[in-house]
Amino acid sequence: MRSLRQQKRLQNRHPLKTSGNSRKRSRTSCSSRGSKLELKVQKRLSAAILKCSPKRIVFDSSRLSDIKEAITKADIRGLIRDRAIISVPARGISRHRARERQLKRIAGQRRGPGRRKGKATARLPDKDAWMAKIRNQRRFLNELKEKKMLSTEDFRMLYLKAKSGFFRSTRHIKLFIAEHKLVKSK
Q1: Which CATH number fits domain 125-186: 1.10.1200.60, 3.40.50.720, 3.40.1190.10, 3.40.50.20?
Q2: Which helix (H) or strand (E) holds 87?
Q3: Is 57 helix (H, G, I), strand (E, B) or coil?
Q4: Across the strands, what pairs with 86?
């Protein structure tokens, strides 16, 4: 509530904005919000005890009279123990939309030219592409060697060709082996 001196000062400053009934109006507006204002301290205390935001504090509507009477932290702790005051879990950010997007990307959608930023080598660096390619080729050559389909000399020759970047893919290795008849029959 404003003192008479403050009201006169306001009327002098803004003669058009304030009217004679301004005091009455402010009193009625406060009474409608009275219950919220009365519980503001309790909400702040319970938030401090539960170590969360006052926005997350919820009062049991059937125990509001008890909560209004609670003025110390000890009183609030008792009400928390009785579950009259509870804290709602913090609301996080849903992963639902992100998971849906991820599934679409796995399926090959949302990867068009309009989505791309950066060169192809920025998205898949040359070294990463090379590592994936050479590992695949070496795995294939080792399988042939373990099955005894290649002699040690042929394996060594193909391995070094792969290392030098001669083969484009495992299919290219297969074609080279077939052309030069390097595979031994069991």
Answers
A1: 1.10.1200.60
A2: strand 85-87
A3: strand
A4: 58
Look up the pTM and report it.
0.52
CB atoms within 10 A of CB 166: 13
45 neighbors 76 (Cβ within 8 angstroms): yes
Taken in order 81, 86, 89, 90, the sign of the CA dihedral is negative
Domain ranges of the chain: 26-87, 125-186
Q: What is the pLDDT of residues 166-184, one digit of tens each?
A: 999 999 999 999 999 998 8
Residue 47's identity, in one-letter code, is: A
* Fold classification of 26-87 (topology level): 50s Ribosomal Protein L19e, Chain O, domain 1 (1.10.1650)
Supply the mean pLDDT for the chain. Answer: 88
Looking at the DSSP assignment, which residues form a beta bridge with residue 59?
A: 85
pLDDT tens track for 135-172: 999 999 999 999 999 999 999 999 999 999 999 999 99
CB 41 within 8 A of CB 71: yes
State the residue for tokens 């997007």.
Answer: 101
